[in-house]
Amino acid sequence: MNSTYHHQREILSLKSRALTILVDNYTTIFQNIDHHKLRTLIPKPFLKEIFSRLAFKGILEGPLFRLLDQRATIIDLKSIRNFNNAACSVLKNFSNLRTLYLDEVCADSESLCDLFSTMYKLSILEITKSPSFNDSVAKVMSESCPCLRVLNANRTGLGDEGLIAFGQNSLTFVALDISNTSVSYAGIQGLLSSPTKGTLKELKCRGTKVNNREDILTIIMGFQPLEEYTFDFASSDDATWVMSRVTKRPKNCYFSVEI
Questions:
Q1: What is the per-residue pLDDT across 154-178, written as a single tens digit (0 to 9) for each?
Q2: Measured between alpha carbons, how far is 206 from 74 in angstroms, rounded to an integer?
Q3: Domain coordinates of the chain in residue numbers?
Q4: Phi, psi angle pair for 175, to nearest 5°
């Protein structure tokens, strides 16, 4: 019994050492081996663990995204700090992807356009702190991502033209975070005249150009199923004025007042 236990411990220890060596020397080992051979040489569980560790360290290089399973439907790369043009060229082959999480993307807008032009099944996208995610990218997505329902574009280059394009191509958002962008009332109007008017339940708009109380009231009342929203107001009186006119108070509402 004890010998079996110690034997299993030794195997786990050897596996751990092997993974550490592979991760520490990933540049030398992986960059010079065809990714098809990698799948033959290294067991699948090992590949997943290697990718996970490299992603956690935020040092995953573009070509190593080939370690991911192209059949994946959910990919979380928020810890990656060098999601660049090379990574986009690899990830665009993941045609089954439905959920994608990105943060501080360093790929340019042209590469992002190329990436999202192939993601026909994408329904949830979180791409934050990424100025290259702009109106040009949104316009491409409005045509190539008809299933997109949830978008978190906090601190990106998204503006009015992108939202208008989403509306013109009849996307039906359920949740939308456009905080800390250049979006104004004109952009949201584009969604108010689209099918999203009847589907949007969550809207976050803090740090945008939307702060006029009449505009905010129109937005709140316009999206019929809206349950949660955030806005900035110029004064507490404006916030009180809006809330006194909202016929149905949502489950969660958050207002901040500029000082």
A1: 999 999 999 999 999 999 999 999 9
A2: 28
A3: 1-66, 67-257
A4: -140, 135
Rounded Cα–Cα distance for residues 180 and 192 (Å):
20
232 forms bridges with which residues in the sheet? 256
Per-residue pLDDT tens over the stretch 93-133: 888 999 999 999 999 999 999 999 999 999 999 999 999 99
CA dist., res. 139 & res. 143, Å (int): 7
Whether the Cβ atoms of residue 72 and residue 52 lie closer than 8 Å to each other: no
> Which CATH architecture is the domain 67-257 placed in?
Alpha-Beta Horseshoe (3.80)
Residue appearing with tokens 């360290």: 57
Give every CB contact of residue 126 below 8 A, 6+ residues apart in sequence. Answer: 78, 100, 101, 102, 103, 150, 151, 152
CA-to-CA distance for 61 and 111, rounded, in angstroms? 16
